[in-house]
């Protein structure tokens, strides 16, 4: 079976409470009905503007955030039906690398303790075996053994992110959620961390959900890419299809914002500038959520939510102007 994770109609709604009685007056619909699979050994890129629900999606898959509805399956196990010790045991197989390596490492712990803490939590190694594991993990992420007895503040952002990756790998997981792992790093070290993440995948057979806020970051690392807007996935396709044949107007706009070196392509591609701000997830627009900013919106888009459907070879899109054969056609609105 080549599917590692299955996500079905996943929702995370945060209640908005008011007044003395803390009555619920609404909900922030951070994640609002996602369905997709992650294949064993692949990198699924998850892209969208900040606040669209990417991080919450990653956290909800790992059950760090309690989903409001829907199911997440890891192999044949439904994570969303587990709690207590069985869930804890499944958690060992799934880890997260956070965006900010300055905030995610405890400043009072030595690097050795930071990396080995998960081993203790899961009771996987102690004493000399634990020390050996720390040395191995430092080597795996390209850091010298001397790091063991030093503290996070002594190191650069890139080095700290390597420590965070070593920590995530300590318990030998199958699946990692990488939540914008290079966004807080200097541009000069971003490529090194991306290369590390990629080579670790090959060597350790890892599966990734790789979250980023723009399409240039995930381009080189992803096998498939999901584009998210206001709590929904609007398009999902393999990398080549997504970059060469983006179907959703939002994906087209995101792609048009990436500078491309080839001037002949540039001439053919028009920069699409989106008007307005991202609407609030508390009260998302009716119909297609993108209609308030979509340059192609037609009457139907205001009323009816477009279905997220496969238009061929696993290229999924939710737009009224994409026909059944996977062609974007503004004439469909006539
Ligand atoms: Fe634009 Fe309508 Fe397609 Fe939504 S459904 S992306 S508003 S054309
Ligand atoms: Mg985020």
UniProtKB/TrEMBL annotation:
Keywords: ATP-binding, Nucleotide-binding, Transport. Pfam families: ABC_tran, oligo_HPY. InterPro entries: AAA+_ATPase, ABC_transp_ATP-bind, ABC_transporter-like_ATP-bd, ABC_transporter-like_CS, Oligopep_ABC_C, P-loop_NTPase. SMART domains: AAA. It comes from the Bacteria. PROSITE patterns: ABC_TRANSPORTER_1, ABC_TRANSPORTER_2. GO terms for molecular function: ATP binding. Residues 5-255 form the ABC transporter domain. Belongs to the ABC transporter superfamily. PANTHER family: D,D-DIPEPTIDE TRANSPORT ATP-BINDING PROTEIN DDPF-RELATED (PTHR43776:SF7), TRANSPORT ATP-BINDING PROTEIN (PTHR43776). This is Dipeptide ABC transporter ATP-binding protein.
